[in-house]
From TrEMBL:
Keyword DNA-binding: no
Gene3D superfamilies: Vaccinia Virus protein VP39
NCBIfam families, alphabetized: fkbM_fam
The species this protein was found in: Candidatus Phosphoribacter hodrii
A single GO molecular function term of this UniProt record: methyltransferase activity
Domain of life: Bacteria
Residues annotated as transmembrane: none
Transferase found in the keyword field: yes
Alphabetical keyword list: Methyltransferase, Transferase
Coiled coil feature spans: none
Domain Methyltransferase FkbM: from-to ranges: 98-238
Name assigned to this protein: FkbM family methyltransferase
A Pfam family annotated for this UniProt entry: Methyltransf_21
InterPro entries on file: FkbM_mtfrase (IPR006342), SAM-dependent_MTase (IPR052514), SAM-dependent_MTases_sf (IPR029063)
Lineage: Bacteria, Bacillati, Actinomycetota, Actinomycetes, Micrococcales
């Protein structure tokens, strides 16, 4: 059998396996398709709730040198519970804001879940990530997605972005007074409020390597205008301290905005764990690990597919 025939056979097997798995296990389907297509085009297939799908290109590199996000997307292990949280929140016509979109996994997933009547605004400042993100949106015809090549903060202007040479998800804004010899690029900076304007927003996902507090400050009007909003926030104590910032500042700001119900996303157990600020502070001291938080003004629905434990 020729190499081309093998490629076609593996692709067909990937598609049939994903269909058999079904939309309830989209992460598994993406893993199967991703591994089988690895030798052909280094892509994964994201499957929506109703069986709709989109093919995502990963960064081009040899597998042994692929970064953490790419490797986890291929294995289907990339933030599976966060995916389920989005599936529970985003419905047809929803508006989602993805701050720190990287190459677009959650952007593409949100677009599939929201459908053609929905809207997704994706922010990504780093040039290589932005190029792949833009390609992933265009190749799937996701016209409901608006891609903004900018970092989000509490002001509009420009700022230096520190580039991580091995991990595409670890680029971050340079803190005031920070010294170092690593590669840096100047990027545009804006606020969520500036881009969103008066549009309704249902979900905001923020993953910006410790600078989440500035993002929250720059979306004060969006929070005020959307009392039913849910924020999915990467809580990165180590990265925040590296930048000389208070790791709990974004949590405190969101509490002040009325989003007092806070949950830790347990990726390993497919659950949400209710937590208060002091418990979160204690957790930071013990582990220092980054986790995703879900924050809302209303309690998490008791009948959700993602259960809550106290």
């Amino acid at each position: 059998m020729s190499g081309q025939s093998v490629s076609r056979a593996l692709t067909r097997l990937a598609d049939l396996t994903a269909e058999a798995v079904g939309s309830a296990h989209g992460g598994v389907a993406a893993a199967v398709r991703g591994v089988l297509r690895l030798g052909r085009d280094r892509s994964v297939v994201v499957v929506g709730r109703d069986g709709t799908s989109a093919t995502m290109r990963l960064h081009e590199s040899r597998f042994s040198g692929m970064d953490t996000i790419g490797s986890q997307l291929l294995s289907g292990s990339y933030e599976p519970t966060t995916r389920r949280v989005l599936e529970a929140l985003v419905t047809s016509g929803s508006t989602v804001v993805d701050v720190g979109a990287n190459i677009g996994y959650f952007t593409v997933l949100s677009a599939l879940l929201a459908g053609p009547t929905g809207r997704v605004i994706a922010f990504e400042p780093e040039p290589r990530n932005h190029a792949v993100l833009t390609d992933n949106v265009a190749r799937n015809g996701l016209r409901q997605v608006m891609v903004v090549q900018a970092a989000c903060a509490d002001r509009v202007g420009q700022h230096e972005l520190s580039i991580n040479s091995s991990e595409t998800g670890w680029h971050r804004l340079v803190a005031a007074g920070e010294v170092g010899r690593g590669k840096r690029v100047v990027v545009e900076v804006t606020t969520v409020d500036t881009i969103v304007g008066e549009s309704p927003v249902d979900v905001v996902k923020i993953d910006v390597e410790g600078h989440e507090g500035a993002v929250v400050t720059g979306m004060a009007q969006t929070l005020a205008d959307n009392p039913g909003i849910t924020v999915i926030l990467e809580h990165s104590p180590a990265q925040a301290r590296l930048a000389g910032l208070d790791p709990l500042a974004p949590v405190t700001l969101l509490h002040q905005a009325g989003l007092r119900h806070t949950y830790v996303v347990r990726e390993d157990k497919a659950i949400l764990e209710k937590i208060d600020v002091e418990s979160l502070r204690s957790r930071d001291v013990k582990t220092g690990r980054s986790v995703n938080l879900v924050m809302r003004a209303q309690p998490w629905p008791a009948d959700s597919a993602v259960p809550v434990v106290s």
